[in-house]
Amino acid sequence: MAGTRNTAIAVVLAALALTATACNDNNDDKTAAAPPSSAAAGTTAPTGAAPTTSAAAPAKLTPAAFLEQVTRKTGAAKSAKISEDISVAGTTMTGQGAVSWADGLQGDVTMDMSGSPLGKVLSALTGGESAPYRYTKDAMYLRLGGNAVQAVGGRHWLHYDKATMAKASGGGADQLKNADPVQGVRNLIASGKVTEVGQEAVNGKPATHYTGQLTQADIANAAGKGLTDDQLEQTRKNLAAAGIASEQIDVWVDADQLVVKRAEQGDTKSGPFKVTVTYSDYGTPVTTAAPDPADTVEPSELAKLDKGGAAS
Question: Which end of the chain is less congested by CB atoms within 10 angstroms, N or C?
């Protein structure tokens, strides 16, 4: 049972890592410029004088240039409510919560595993087929429930530091260091192949859909396309660690230049994945604190209990 449960935890961590691959905007945020007006600029001629010639209307921004504005506007919002649909190697799950990316990833997200056989496996830890996760700047915690709490002396949180998360998810140690809704946007810009699909409805409101394909070869040629060298290297490592040669990235942007939905899909060394995240209520308060250390348990301790037969 312990091996199956560890596999379940690893799959969940890998899925969560896919929704939060590292790349925050470390440059100073600047207010995004308003999109250029389509109206021609000109001056009114004095009475009786010949009218002056109006200046030509500014050229429409390319999709990549517009998405640069979107990264600044969305990144500056700092927090949002999220809804996730995740499929990794045939395992499906959904999530709801609120997160902040003002200083690393922080927030609370509950993953519903009832649509997967792994939900029953995780229920031995959580007391049900949902997995309540808490993110802090440097760690992640899984809320324990049912008999697991008694087995660990009444403690309620399973603690994962960055190194443990990296080992379980197959990612780099800094994979969850920073996260925000514009990660997919930056990667889409870096691909150099952004296409505007058109207008679509997201949560009942109009949004513009952009799409593109990102490969590891694109990253090698992406200098100066919205990501720093360190961010490009981290993205390369993330893709390589997951065995992703190419991924399709789709983002939807509303009239306020905020990302309201993003989707990423491709093939990993464990099987195909697809992650879709929708965002709402930008600026929502997120006040997440790490649990009391006295109320936490380490995965290594849980593993010892399993070997001794103290926990199922």
Answer: N
Domain residues for the domain of 154 are 2-26+65-307
- Closest by Cα among 282, 283, 280, 264 to 82: 280
Flag whether 240 is in a domain.
yes
Number of domains the chain contains: 1
pLDDT per residue, tens digit, the chain (312 aa), is 444 455 555 556 555 554 544 233 334 333 333 333 333 333 344 444 444 444 444 457 889 889 999 999 998 999 999 999 988 777 888 999 999 988 878 899 998 988 888 788 888 889 999 989 998 888 889 999 998 899 899 999 999 887 777 666 555 444 444 456 877 788 888 888 899 999 999 999 999 999 998 877 776 665 555 566 676 676 667 677 666 777 899 999 999 999 999 998 888 777 788 889 999 999 999 988 999 999 999 988 877 776 655 444
The secondary structure of the chain in percent helix, strand, coil, rounded to multiples of 5, reads 30, 30, 40
Buried b (16+ CB within 10 A) or exposed e, 126-162: bebbbbbbbbbbebbbbbbbeebbebbeebbbbbbeb
Note whether residue 36 is domain-resident.
no
* 252: in domain: yes
Q: How many whole angstroms separate alpha carbon 110 and alpha carbon 82?
A: 11
Question: Is residue 135 a part of any domain in this protein?
Answer: yes
Q: Can you tell me whether residue 95 is helix, strand or coil?
A: strand
The CATH number that applies at residue 111 is: 2.50.20.20
